[in-house]
Structure formats: structure tokens, C-alpha cells
UniProtKB/TrEMBL annotation:
InterPro entries: DinB, DinB/YfiT-like. This is Damage-inducible protein DinB. It comes from Paenibacillus silvestris. Keywords: Metal-binding. The keyword Metal-binding applies. A divalent metal cation binds at H48, H127, H131.
Length: 167
């Protein structure tokens, strides 16, 4: 959990930068990639990273601009990437101006449970990381190169002068 607002800001800046790199790599065609018939396509997962987390953060008391959770995913990848960039900036500004270290220990109702704001921010980050993992799988299926979040992706080993690990 987070004991300071600055620790959340630092972690969110790192995680959102990785997410932004992936969203910036998307193509309009890749947004239609599905894992299987009847499942949400890549564009829906990407758009979920832009808007739906607002609900969790809104319940924690943060106010910032973000697209509506009921809005349809755009058909242009650049629109998704730009919306994420704007939403991220809004979240960071809200954290800087609306939170204090003491406020992190306040309790809020989250999904019918009592969570501290610190726990909520931690869950928010894990939620993004979870969906980012889904995004990378769908990106690979769509033929879009991915980047490694916590180490090199297969496509990146050569650029760091190392052989791709054997399967």
C-alpha cells in the first residue's frame, strides 16, 4: 500500500508510461482483434484503461476529466492513446492537489467493502497492470509489436545485445 501521495504518483507515472507506450503502438485495425469469438476486442480493453478506472478513483474522492464509462470505444487508435494521455494527466493532477498523506488512510466504500484510499490506489494500479497484460496478448495476436514492462519482451532482446531466451 501507499503511505505517501508521492509514492503513488511515482508508481503511477512508471506504470502509465508503459501503458502509454503500448497504446501509442496500436493501429486502427488492431482495435478489432479478439481473443475468441464473443469476447471483447482489443479496442474495448484499451478504452477500458482510459475511462472505467475513473469509477474506482471517483469512489476514492478524486475528481478529474475522463471519457464516460458508457461511451463506445473509438475506432481510431490515436484517439484512444490521446484520451489515455489526457486522463493520466488528470489523475496525476488530482492526486497532487486532492490527496494528502493523511487522507490515504481514510476509509471508503469500494465494491461493498471498506478500503482505505491507499488500498484503492494500489488496487487501481493492479487493475491497470492486469488489463495491460490482456492488451499485450491481443497486440501480439494482431501482429503489433509489444514492449516489456518488467524486462525485455521477446522483440527487444536483440536491441540490448542479447540472444532471445530459448523456448
Amino acid at each position: 500500500m501507499f503511505t505517501t501521495v508521492e509514492s503513488f504518483i511515482n508508481q503511477y507515472q512508471q506504470e502509465s508510461a508503459t501503458t502509454q507506450q503500448l497504446l501509442d503502438a496500436l493501429t486502427d485495425a488492431s482495435l478489432q482483434q479478439q481473443q475468441a469469438e464473443g469476447y471483447r476486442p482489443l479496442g474495448f480493453i484499451a478504452w477500458h484503461l482510459v475511462h472505467n478506472d475513473r469509477g474506482m478513483l471517483l469512489a476514492a474522492g478524486l475528481k478529474f476529466a475522463a471519457p464516460s464509462a458508457s461511451s463506445n470505444p473509438p475506432s481510431e487508435a490515436a484517439v484512444v492513446a490521446d484520451a489515455y494521455r489526457s486522463t493520466t494527466a488528470g489523475i496525476l493532477e488530482a492526486a497532487r492537489t486532492q490527496l494528502t498523506d493523511a487522507k490515504l488512510q481514510e476509509v471508503v466504500n469500494m465494491f461493498g467493502q471498506q478500503w482505505t484510499i491507499s488500498e484503492t490506489l494500489f488496487a487501481f494500479l493492479k487493475h491497470e497492470i492486469h488489463h495491460r497484460g490482456q492488451l499485450t496478448i491481443l497486440m501480439r495476436q494482431a501482429g503489433v509489436p509489444v514492449i516489456g514492462a518488467y524486462g525485455p519482451a521477446k522483440e527487444q532482446w536483440a536491441s540490448i545485445g542479447m540472444p532471445v531466451p530459448a523456448i
